[in-house]
Amino acid sequence: MGLLTKGSPLSWDETVPYIDYIKEHGIKQFIAMYHRLKARQGDQLKWGDEIEYTIVKFDEANKKVRVSLRAEELLSRLQAAEEVNALVGTENRFLWRPEYASYMVEGTPGVPYGGLLACFNVVENNMRRRREEVSKLLKRDESVMSISFPWLGCPDFTFPHADPTPQDPNAVSRSLFYPDEAIFGGHPRFKNLTKNIRNRRGSKVAINVPIFKDEHTMNPFIEDFSQLGDDGEAKAAAKPDHIYMDAMGFGMGCCCLQMTFQAVNLSEARWLYDQLTPITPILLALSAATPIFRGYLADVDSRWDIISASVDDRTKEERGLEPLSKQKFQIEKSRYDTTDCYIYPCSAGYNDVKLQYEDKIYQQLLDGGVDTHLAEHIAHMFIRDPLQVFKERIEQDDDKSTEHFETIQSSNWMNMRFKPPPPDAAEIGWRVEFRPTEVQLTDFENAAYCCFVVLLTRVIISFRLTFLLPISTVNENMQRAQKRDAVLNQKFYFRKGLVTCNTPPEAKKVACCTAPSENIIEMTIEEIISGKGDDFPGLIPLIKQYLDSADVDVDTRCTVSQYLKFIQKRASGEIQTLAHWTREFVAAHPDYKKDSVVSDSIAFDLLKLMDQIAKGEHHCETRLLGCFRSKTDQLIPSAVRRAEESLVMNKASRKHQPETNGAAAH
Fold first, then answer.
1. Across the strands, what pairs with 483?
2. In angstroms, rounded to a whole number, what is the distance separating the alpha carbons of residues 462 and 465?
């Protein structure tokens, strides 16, 4: 969602004179916040998920499905209920926020989940109730779905109908396919961001996705955009045998699943950021769910590169198409892409990608007392210009605000995000955000992925495991993860064996963080998840080992076991990814002509079945979901909560007692 500040947004031309000022003061704000909070200790594990939903409208009479542009209306009612609860002192079960598109809403738990293992048994229930809460406000022919809509950009894909306006000089995106009405209008951020990306770049964004070549797919696949009002830009930008798209909405209008974890302190947050970074491609492949774009079957299974291109504000100079003149750098990536560096000190040996940054910004951070590794990370983010500046918010108190810092931080969309505490929330500590996961069709699946990643953080911290890879191989893995059926057909660089760091992360140098290349091998997703003989025990066996050492109530252990078995079966291919299942559905549909085209009728039948599956009305899709049922519940039983809290308190008190035998804590 990003930073939602109220005010009058500046156009790109109005922003340009303030760029250097905002960067300088953004760094000042970070330095002040860093020194104010770097010694913060003792925060408990808290975590939460963010699920983005699409509102769809089914036209049964004409066998059509459209996105319903009612997000602003729905959010006003959902957020009104939040405000009432706040006034009367009732805890909100959910929180609702706007997203990029006017057919999307974002839902989160009302309060973060805590560190109790029993919390895993309420996650799915909370997700289910979120879906129910939106559903109560929908019309009879509408539904809320945790999917990326496959017909975005097709003719008449919105309800009510809206036409793109590519030749209107005052239009926001000027897209051939995606109307401005599909962009959320309830907050100025989204439309202004779209326009500023286009104006900074000097052209519309250009998204090219390889098309899936079927028996009767046009060869070469080249589209004619002249009837849509193309002035020649699309013809020049579109690649042969690719699906062409030209608007931010094709990426940011897709839905995703994200998780945020609070660490005990700054050091642990940096450690988690690094250790989870190599896991991101694995989850991207394992959650593949997006094989259709603009009504065509693509030869990829993920939205990742599509979002990357949809917000690529780099100029021709920065993309290496013209010699540098006005710009400072040729930049290899979009501002939405994989991270370029680890940030924990002992991980530096794995940073094999040369970072770009302005020397004066880097020096400003060093002079401000920020260590080299974190300074490089922050300075590298600040090669990007601010895209969203509000007229009323330019002058700020750098000791109290972090808004200029967040303006740039929140528009660097990477697979992991390092999140400092906000200045106005004393209860929130240092956090990391896990960002690559594709949203899943059902609450069971989304809960399974969330609990898997959270448990993996517990394994990493408890066992002091390191999964570090050279950062260049993480980038390569992210590319492999998007390929069609990557979960079955691709191999990924991963660390074999188990390397543990008995020295806690606070140490400045840890021997296990050196980079022995012989410990990096290629493995399948199944081998990484379930194990590969003597080379690697597998992530899920490690999680089970952690659970065996913990006191877990019967219902929670049953639920978690169901989640882990489900993920293992999906990793092996016994249960299909949503992307694979979708391809099979399209291929078997009587209206499919083996030409890569997903017609109106196919899209209707596909989403109708998806909706029935998500609501639990259709139980025959064992290929997609298996036969798993969790014991998820609305509340943690009080007896279980008391027992776990007592155990946590006892462990904490033992941890602070002096050791008598000199042994490491783990």
1. 300
2. 8
- Count of C-beta atoms within a 10 Å radius of residue 526: 20
In this structure, the chain runs to a length of 666
C-alpha to C-alpha distances, 181 to 123, 149, 186, nearest whole angstrom:
34, 16, 11
> Degrees (nearest 5) of the Cα angle 406, 314, 338?
60
Mark residue 224 as left, alpha or beta (left: phi above 0; alpha: psi -120 to 50; beta: remaining). Answer: beta
Q: What is the distance between the alpha carbons of residues 454 and 279, in angstroms, rounded to a whole number?
A: 12
Tell me what the mean pLDDT of segment 138-165 comes to: 98
Q: Which of 462, 517, 143 is nearest to 272 (CA)?
A: 462
In 3D space, the residue among 50, 99, 92, 91 whose CA is nearest the CA of residue 74 turns out to be: 99
* Residue whose structure tokens are 């006191």: 551
Which has the closest alpha carbon to 297: 176, 172, 230, 210?
210
**Per-residue b/e over 423-457, b at no fewer than 16 CB within 10 Å?**
beeeebbbbbbbbbbbbbbbbbbbbbbbbbbbbbb
C-alpha 277/C-alpha 417 separation (Å) is 10
C-beta of residue 442 within 8 angstroms of C-beta of residue 625 = yes
CA distance 429 to 265: 7
The residue whose two tokens read 């010699």 is: 323
Contact 40/420 with Cβ under 8 angstroms?
Answer: no
pLDDT for 470-528, tens place per residue?
A: 999 999 999 999 999 999 999 999 999 887 775 444 444 444 555 556 789 999 999 99
Give CA separation, 448 vs 286, 287, 406, 560, 576, in Å.
12, 11, 31, 8, 15
User: What are the structure tokens assigned to 231, written together?
Assistant: 């002035």
Extract the tokens encoding 247: 């608007």
Helical ranges in 238-357 per DSSP H: 249-252, 266-276, 280-286, 304-310
Helices (H) and strands (E) in the chain — how many of each? 23, 17
Query: Regarding beta strands 431-434 and 257-262, do their DSSP bridges make them parallel or antiparallel, or are they unpaired?
Result: antiparallel
Token digits for 472?
């260049």
Q: How far is CA 522 from CA 286, 347, 473, in A?
A: 16, 21, 10
List the one residue out of 55, 68, 50 whose CA is nearest residue 1.
Answer: 50
- Distance, in Å, from the CA atom of 8 to the CA atom of 500, rounded to the nearest integer, reads 51
Q: How far apart are CA 102 and CA 535, in angstroms?
A: 48
- Whether the CB-CB separation of 29 and 368 falls below 8 Å is answered with no
Distance (Å, whole) CA 144 – CA 142: 7
Q: Is the pTM of this model over 0.85?
A: yes
How many other CB atoms are found less than 10 A from the CB of residue 201? 19
Rounded Cα gap, residues 274 and 466, in angstroms: 9
The pairing of beta strand 413-414 with beta strand 336-337: parallel
Q: Do you find a cis peptide bond into 220, omega within 30 degrees of 0? A: yes
Rounded to the nearest 10 degrees, the angle between the axes of helix 539-548 and helix 443-463 is 70
Cα separation, 50 vs 370, whole angstroms: 31
Supply 132's token pair. 């129910």
Average pLDDT, the chain: 92
Q: What is the sign of the dihedral through the CA atoms of 432, 258, 405 and 275?
A: positive
Given a cut of 90, whether residue 665 has pLDDT beyond it is: no
Cβ atoms < 10 Å from Cβ of 136: 8
